[in-house]
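Summary of Year 1 activities. Much of the first year was spent building the evaluation harness for sequence design. The harness presents a backbone, in tokenized form, and records the residue chosen at every position. We chose the following record to illustrate the format because it has been used consistently in internal testing since the harness was completed.
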């Protein structure tokens, strides 16, 4: 059986498990950097020490995806925010914490329950048209993102006197060698070693003598210098580098590749929170290094991350500059590795070929060839002129921020698909939070579009637009909730008619009155523990209502325009 309708029978068939799992490497023991868990083991009846050991074995996908988020583009974006605006934009990071958790927690459930990558689920449930759009976005943005990672490697090693002609090829060979070993555990241990290097952010932050009160004041939302297109582009860049679309594809596929099943979802959520704490600490430390180490003398003069390292060398001392360069190098390597794997995981999903770090090169040639090709292209592009690469770094983050609403919409739709998640589908509360996140991202994207089209637009006008957009979101959400309530009522009335004279209110309340809360929770936990997504080709594809289809097309059309406008803004800055 092929991955999705129309695929070739030459591609890897679905393995005979009765589930959506399609690659035999995705079934077996959890073999992590810090431990091993047998395929049929569980945490039931274990001591606290044993459960902690199991948590260490599960630890990985959430931590790596979050640390990979603080990549070269992230370092540059946070440093720009700190140098140009001090700690005034810390509030953007605080607001992104729930966005990070909500988005990635949905990915955790999809990966563990379905045992299939994000791209494969989109193709299977929404067809080739929407799948091609989603994966096409991912491939383009990811390829550009890896270019920025090589730019980060160049800047970091150039600080130590190593030229680009040596640093870029060396980094590309290292990145490929780590992935191509045919051992998931060896790859994860290498990533953990890189993550451990991030500890240098703490001495770096202390060297610049940060002000706790100034940092705390930055949690209060403000728009230093007024809400203009330049500031909006930076805010969208922070959103794009902190909550990037590639994260959805990487973590879901990495969970599948690590063989994490529903019984370990609770542990994977802890893994995700550990990663969020690390990524937020790193972002604030980088912002503080630039804010207190370079400002106010160099405020507003940000050029690139390499200049930040040299500036810290001149103003604070060689140690500060070296630590920043090490942090930049480390971030670039982790980011390139994770983003590259996100792309080749998706490539395997799309083409229906083997895509696992458990396979050797001879067993999964397309997976490794795609990764090598991506590294080679990105390395070649990274030899472009410096001023172009500097703006490209910011532009990639902005593009990721603009495209994020589309990726989140598909994520929410999948997490409401009962055929995929069964008892693990989103609750009403989760859908409300997800809807607020998606609409907030759309409003931010709209504001950037307006500021780009009308450079002289006032702060008051933009703020009014945000308020109006929020009101539209509340009214729209209320209308959708009312529509769902009416649909549920109509379904209850149809059921009552079929049963002959039963009160519809009793039908609606039957599930709530027949069992106690404890009994309902016990049944739910049992269902969740045993549920796995059936083979995807046995499931009927969900029908799009005319309203939903129109909304999706409108969102896609707008995003195409927004992406073009971000490109215009970057081009204007290049030619200014």
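For this record, the design step produced the sequence shown next.
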């Amino acid at each position: 059986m092929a991955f999705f309708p129309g695929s070739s029978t030459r591609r890897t068939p679905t393995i005979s498990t009765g589930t959506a799992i399609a690659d035999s490497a995705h079934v077996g023991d959890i073999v992590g950097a810090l431990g091993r868990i047998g395929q049929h083991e569980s945490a039931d009846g274990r001591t606290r020490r044993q459960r902690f050991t199991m948590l260490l074995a599960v630890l990985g996908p959430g931590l790596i995806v979050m640390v990979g988020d603080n990549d070269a583009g992230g370092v540059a974006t946070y440093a720009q925010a700190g140098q140009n605006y001090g700690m005034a934009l810390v509030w953007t990071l605080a607001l992104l914490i729930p966005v990070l958790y909500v988005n990635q927690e949905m990915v955790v459930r999809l990966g563990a329950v379905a045992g299939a990558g994000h791209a494969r689920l989109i193709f299977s449930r929404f067809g080739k048209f929407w799948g091609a759009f989603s994966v096409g976005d991912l491939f383009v943005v990811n390829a550009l993102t890896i270019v920025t990672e090589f730019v980060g490697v160049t800047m970091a090693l150039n600080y130590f006197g190593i030229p680009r002609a040596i640093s870029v090829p060396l980094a590309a060979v290292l990145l490929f060698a780590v992935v191509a070993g045919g051992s998931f555990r060896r790859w994860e241990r290498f990533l953990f070693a890189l993550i451990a290097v991030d500890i240098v952010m703490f001495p770096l932050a202390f060297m610049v003598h940060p002000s706790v009160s100034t940092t705390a004041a930055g949690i209060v939302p403000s728009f230093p210098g007024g809400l203009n297109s330049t500031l909006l582009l930076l805010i969208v860049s922070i959103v794009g580098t902190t909550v990037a679309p590639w994260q959805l594809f990487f973590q879901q596929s990495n969970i599948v590749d690590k063989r994490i099943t529903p019984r370990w979802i609770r542990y994977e959520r802890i893994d995700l929170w550990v990663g969020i704490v690390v990524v937020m600490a790193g972002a604030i430390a980088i912002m503080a290094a630039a804010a207190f180490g370079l400002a106010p003398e160099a405020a507003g003069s940000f050029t690139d991350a390499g200049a930040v390292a040299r500036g810290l060398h001149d103003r604070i001392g060689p140690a500060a500059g070296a630590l920043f360069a090490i942090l930049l190098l480390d971030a670039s390597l982790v980011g390139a590795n994770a983003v590259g794997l996100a792309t080749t995981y998706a490539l395997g999903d799309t083409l229906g070929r083997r895509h696992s770090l458990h396979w050797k090169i001879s067993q999964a040639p397309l997976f490794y060839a795609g990764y090598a090709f991506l590294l080679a292209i990105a390395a070649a592009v990274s030899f472009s002129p410096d001023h172009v690469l500097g703006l490209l770094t910011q532009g990639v983050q902005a593009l990721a921020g603009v495209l994020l609403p589309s990726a989140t919409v598909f994520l929410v739709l999948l997490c409401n698909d009962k055929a995929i998640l069964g008892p693990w589908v989103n609750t009403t509360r989760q859908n409300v939070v997800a809807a607020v996140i998606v609409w907030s991202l759309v409003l931010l994207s709209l504001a950037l579009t307006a500021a780009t089209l009308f450079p002289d637009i006032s702060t008051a006008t933009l703020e009014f637009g945000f308020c109006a957009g929020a009101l539209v979101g509340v009214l729209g959400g209320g209308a959708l909730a009312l529509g769902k309530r009416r649909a549920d009522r109509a379904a209850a009335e149809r059921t009552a008619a079929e049963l002959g004279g039963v009160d519809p209110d009793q039908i609606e309340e039957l599930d709530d009155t027949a069992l106690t809360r404890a009994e309902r929770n016990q049944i739910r936990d049992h269902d969740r523990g045993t549920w796995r997504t059936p083979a995807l080709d046995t499931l009927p594809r969900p029908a799009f209502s005319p309203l939903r289809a129109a909304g999706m097309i409108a969102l896609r059309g707008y995003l195409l325009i927004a992406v073009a406008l971000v490109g215009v803004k970057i081009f204007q800055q290049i030619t200014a």
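The chain is about 75% helix and 0% strand. Quantitative recovery figures across the full test set are reported in Table 2.
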